[in-house]
Amino acid sequence: MASAQDIKLPAGALAHQVSLSTSPSAVLHSPLSSFGTSIPRAAAASVSAKQLKPFATEDVKILLLENVNQTGRDVLAGQGYQVEFLKTSLPEDELIEKIRDVHVIGIRSKTKLTARVLKEARNLIVIGCFCIGTNQVDLKYAADHGIAVFNSPFSNSRSVAELVIAEIVVLARQLGDRSNEMHNGTWNKVSNKCWEIRGKTLGIIGYGHIGSQLSVLAEAMGMNVIYYDVVNLMAMGTTRQVATLEDLLGEADFVTCHVPELPETENMIGQKQFEHMKTGSYLINASRGSVVDIPALVQAMRSGKVAGAALDVYPNEPAGNGDYFTNDLNSWAADLRGLKNIILTPHIGGSTEEAQSAIGVEVSQALVKYVNEGTTQGAVNLPEVALRSLTMDQPNCARVIYIHQNIPGVLRKVNEILGDHNVDKQMTDSRDDVAYLMADISDVDTVMLKDLYERLEGLSSRIMTRILY
Ligand SMILES: NC(=O)c1ccc[n+]([C@@H]2O[C@H](COP(=O)([O-])OP(=O)(O)OC[C@H]3O[C@@H](n4cnc5c(N)ncnc54)[C@H](O)[C@@H]3O)[C@@H](O)[C@H]2O)c1
């Protein structure tokens, strides 16, 4: 195994690029110790895969805010990185002070990474949002400065699917109403219009991560499952895709929405769709608040067309916990609260301990893959690029990452520079104004790498250059 390799760049060469260590003694570094540590996915892929590192591990500085889950902290600390962990978010001025120093920052939804904050983040290469949403980050500014952003969109799919199963039973048996009555001292033992769910048809709108998980659970409960999706998708079990939304609405006893928030999905369940639904059917929405026209739902429930509903998401949701679910927030809130057999929950579909733990693992592993290997798979603001791993029998190989403006003629110039070396593999992709190039080159020594690095940095199209080996 090769010993640790250093390339010394001229003083100041690192000041405005953020990919290389700020340590004076370990600038481009593949330390011995790093070969033994494990990145689960990479290690599983091949025992002989060479683990790349841009730094001496102890030089990678990570700031984790907002009580990021222990699972995520463990993955990052296990890499030997310097991890600073804070339970809360920080006021902007303190955040700016702290962010100047770090290569990686992990946040949840409260930390706002605006252009003003990111401008100060001179060493930052990647942001991990340990949550679903990323609108707390200025994604465009980050991309334009070569800073990748990762999140965890699917770690809570199972939690949502389980909640929906519970809601189907609760609605079918009017459990919410019975429970409320008992809380008010009323004994009301009824079976009228209370149903088993076995043999009933569940109609899933949007058969993605959540919809498909849900279908497996619903079939296990004895339900027939149909789904409607704009994409032709492989059915799980004996579920069946239907051609149109109307087909689904006309056949389903329970209709549940699992589509993304898009212009096409805004109010996709409104008055016309309620008319297509079976009389006495049920509606569940744990997707996005814009998907269901709520005044139309109120009408459909008052008329008896819809026998029950469960809503977890709303067009306007308060920023914090408190007595906010009023007409001040949404003009129909009182109407909704006055209905029978309706379950109203405060966007908790994905809120479980398991989901938090899975988010910790997923985001931290994406950060490790990005820091160590340059892989952008799953990034929300950069093109998704990955190359298969370098192997241990390729000791004099290096991975060149060149993030650049997406303008004509760049590849020709980059390939002129790389052309002096043996390029084993190369991949490039672009997204809006930014392009991401990754190339593995062989038979290079540290002097050549230093020269190559400086020539790439000298191109006017450069956003960021990283060399891993
Ligand atoms: N309540 C919660 O706490 C919670 C938690 C996680 C996700 N969500 C929301 O649940 C929804 C589904 O999440 P997911 O992870 O399953 O998403 P996904 O991207 O895996 O699946 C969405 C599916 O909807 C389909 N689709 C898109 N437009 C459609 C249309 N017009 N008609 C029919 N199908 C359409 C897509 O093809 C895809 O198969 C999202 O809106 C997400 O934000 C809510």
From TrEMBL:
Single biological process term from Gene Ontology: L-serine biosynthetic process
UniProt KW keywords: Amino-acid biosynthesis, NAD, Oxidoreductase, Phosphoprotein, Serine biosynthesis
Function description: Catalyzes the reversible oxidation of 3-phospho-D-glycerate to 3-phosphonooxypyruvate, the first step of the phosphorylated L-serine biosynthesis pathway. Also catalyzes the reversible oxidation of 2-hydroxyglutarate to 2-oxoglutarate.
GO molecular function annotations of the record: 2-oxoglutarate reductase activity; NAD binding; phosphoglycerate dehydrogenase activity
Highest taxon above the source species: Eukaryota
The keyword Phosphoprotein is assigned to this record: yes
Catalyzed reactions per annotation: (R)-2-hydroxyglutarate + NAD(+) = 2-oxoglutarate + NADH + H(+); (2R)-3-phosphoglycerate + NAD(+) = 3-phosphooxypyruvate + NADH + H(+)
Chain ranges of the ACT domain: 399-469
Family: Belongs to the D-isomer specific 2-hydroxyacid dehydrogenase family.
NAD listed as a keyword: yes
The enzyme's E.C. designation: 1.1.1.399, 1.1.1.95
A Pfam family: 2-Hacid_dh
Protein name: 2-oxoglutarate reductase
Pathway of action: Amino-acid biosynthesis; L-serine biosynthesis; L-serine from 3-phospho-D-glycerate: step 1/3
